């Protein structure tokens, strides 16, 4: 048994198998709908059910409340159709050849760049290639069906190796393996590319690109791609971290800012208490953005980081005049 889902105000329609999630069926049909966590926690995939009914077999996910549910809102990364549907989503794109695939990869190189952050470089088999947009992520496929998501930090034009920035989480299943046991040459399996955090090139507005912690990694990919393709739009990069060692590639955005007149870079530390030498910005990174740009109505904003940062920034940026459809974000729950 399958249901048909039509996307309102477009020609797009696709079938959803019994028990399948709307977002998975859309991907299968070659469409990119907004999503990030695919776990019901970030709210990126929220849209409207215009006609028909949906169910959540595991109950209402955390990123939607009963009021929104009753008003016809839905999280399409979790919703299963209970009838044919007409839905409304913020953005729909033809995925073209950007299709998630399952691939093996070998660890080519491991670099320690902070006490708790490693850059891991992966090599694909010689006859395989990953077609992706800078800023997207991959899921490592672990035993027991578990997954761990990491953003790609490299660009498609520099894809001999895939680059990931991995933070060590206390008790972390996968990050514990990465820091304690993983050796160069190790074989991993992943699915990707995933997510719709990537540069929209149909705008000439100035951009703010904000990363929190290892949320810098997709920002790195997006900026490097923009530099490669000659984007001249002003870009103000913000990197929020607790203390200076957490700005684990600080010299890179500094160099971008020195070499390109359209790039500015502001690192922001939330906990510089023990760092008397720090003369830079202090506090929460999104608050620094609004201090520097109190009117965001003319900007596009890209941000990547943990849910508390994303949620606080969404509210602050909207209050500063940023239209919701010019805010692109990747909200990653750090799974242990
Ligand atoms: Fe659906 Fe995050 S809540 S993608």
What does this structure look like?
With 336 residues, the protein is an alpha/beta fold. It folds into three domains: 2-94, Beta-grasp domain (Ubiquitin-like (UB roll)), CATH 3.10.20.30; 101-194, Beta Barrel (Elongation Factor Tu (Ef-tu), domain 3), CATH 2.40.30.10; 207-331, Rossmann fold, CATH 3.40.50.80. Helices cover 19% and strands 33% of the residues. The protein has helices spanning 22-28, 66-70, 173-180, 216-228, 251-259, 285-292, 307-319; strands at 2-7, 13-17, 31-32, 46-51, 54-55, 73-75, 80-81, 85-88, 93-94, 101-114, 117-123, 137-141, 147-151, 162-167, 187-194, 207-212, 235-241, 263-269, 281-282, 300-305, 327-331. Helix 6 runs parallel beside helix 7 (307-319). The model has no long low-confidence stretch (mean pLDDT 94). Bound molecules: FE2/S2 (inorganic) cluster. The site of FE2/S2 (inorganic) cluster has 13 residues, from loops.
């Amino acid at each position: 048994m399958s249901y048909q889902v039509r996307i309102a105000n477009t020609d797009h329609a696709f079938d959803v198998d019994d028990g399948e999630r709307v977002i998975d069926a859309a991907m299968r049909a070659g469409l990119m709908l907004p999503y990030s966590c695919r776990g019901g926690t970030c709210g990126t995939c929220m849209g409207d059910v215009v006609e028909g009914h949906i169910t959540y077999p595991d109950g209402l996910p955390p990123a939607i409340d009963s009021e929104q549910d009753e008003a016809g809102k839905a999280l399409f990364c979790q919703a299963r159709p209970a009838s044919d549907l007409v839905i409304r989503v913020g953005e729909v794109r033809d995925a073209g050849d950007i299709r998630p695939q399952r691939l093996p990869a070998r660890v080519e190189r491991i670099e320690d760049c902070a006490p708790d952050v490693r850059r891991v470089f992966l090599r694909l088999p010689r006859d395989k290639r990953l077609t992706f947009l800078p800023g997207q992520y991959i899921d490592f496929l672990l035993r027991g069906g578990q997954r761990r998501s990491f953003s790609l930090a490299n660009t498609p034009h520099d894809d001999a190796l895939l680059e990931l920035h991995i933070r060590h989480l206390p008790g972390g299943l996968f990050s514990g393996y990465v820091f304690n046991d993983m050796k160069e040459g190790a074989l991993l399996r992943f699915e990707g590319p995933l997510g719709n955090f990537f540069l929209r090139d149909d705008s000439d507005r100035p951009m703010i690109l904000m990363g929190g912690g290892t949320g810098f990694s997709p920002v790195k990919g997006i900026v490097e791609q923009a530099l490669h393709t000659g984007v001249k739009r002003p870009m103000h990069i913000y990197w929020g971290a607790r203390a200076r060692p957490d700005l684990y590639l600080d010299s890179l955005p500094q160099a971008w800012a020195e070499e390109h007149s359209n790039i500015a870079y502001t690192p922001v530390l939330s906990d510089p208490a023990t760092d008397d030498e720090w003369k830079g910005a202090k506090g929460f990174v999104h608050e620094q953005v609004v201090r520097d740009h109190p009117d965001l109505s003319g900007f596009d904003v890209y941000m990547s980081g943990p849910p508390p940062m994303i949620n606080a920034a969404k509210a602050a940026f909207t209050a500063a005049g940023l239209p919701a459809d010019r805010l692109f974000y990747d909200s990653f729950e750090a799974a242990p």
